[in-house]
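Supplementary Methods, section 5.1.

A reviewer requested that the exact input to the structure prediction be made available. We therefore reproduce it here, unchanged from the version used in the analyses.
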Amino acid sequence: MTVPRKAAAMTAAAAAACVAVSACGSVQMGAAALTGGNRISSATLTAEVANLKSAYQADQAKGVSPQRPTGQEAQQVLTWLITFRIYDKIAAQRDISVTPAQEAQQLSALSAAAKQSKVTVPEYVSAGGGLPPDLLPQLSRYFAILTALENRITGGKTPTTQAEQTHIQSVVVHDQCLASKSLDVTVNPQYGEFDYTSYSVVPAPPTLAANPNSKPSASTVKLTPPC
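The structure derived from this sequence is encoded cell-by-cell as follows.
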C-alpha cells in the first residue's frame, strides 16, 4: 500500500505456536500482546483477523489480489494494532494533538490514492496494506500523528533534499523506538515476536525438533529496543 508521507514498513509472517497461552512467557492470559501494561486481547485480534479475511475474499471476488502473504493475517493485523498504540504514545511524548479535521484530511488522501489505483478505499487498505477496513479511523489517526510529527521535525517546511528526508526518517524511527521501549511491547509467542528492526510481529523461532548438529543461523530480528 502506498501511503502518505513516510511510514515504517509493516511486515509479518506466520507464527510458531506455544503449547498454550498460559505458557507464553509473561503475556497475560487471553492477551495477544501487551503495550504499556494494557492488553490487546486475543478476542480482539481474532475478530479483526476475521474482518481482514472477509475483506480479502471480497477483494479477490472483484479481481483485486492481496499484496501481503495470505495465511499471515494474524501477524499483519497485530502489527497494525501495536503500531496504532505506538503512535498514540509518540503523540503523548511529543505533546502532539490531532483534530478530526486532520484525520479527515488523511482519509481524503487515502481516498485519492485508492482512486488513482482504481480501487475502493477498503480494497486499497486491505489488499494493499493487510489492514481490516473497519480500522480506517485508526489508520487516519496514525497518519495524522505521523504527518504532525514530520512537520514538527521540519518546522513545517517541505524537505527538498535526500539528506533532509533521511533526517526526518531517522527521527521518526528513533521516536518509534522510544515509544516502543516505554510501552515495553510484548507479544504472545503464539503469534510471534516483536521485531525492533521492522517494528512488526515476526515468527518466533521453533523450539521443538531442532537438529542438534545444525549451526545456528544468523538472525536479523532485534528483540530489544536499540535506543
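Confidence is low (pLDDT under 50) at residues 2-25, 214-218. These observations are discussed further in the main text.
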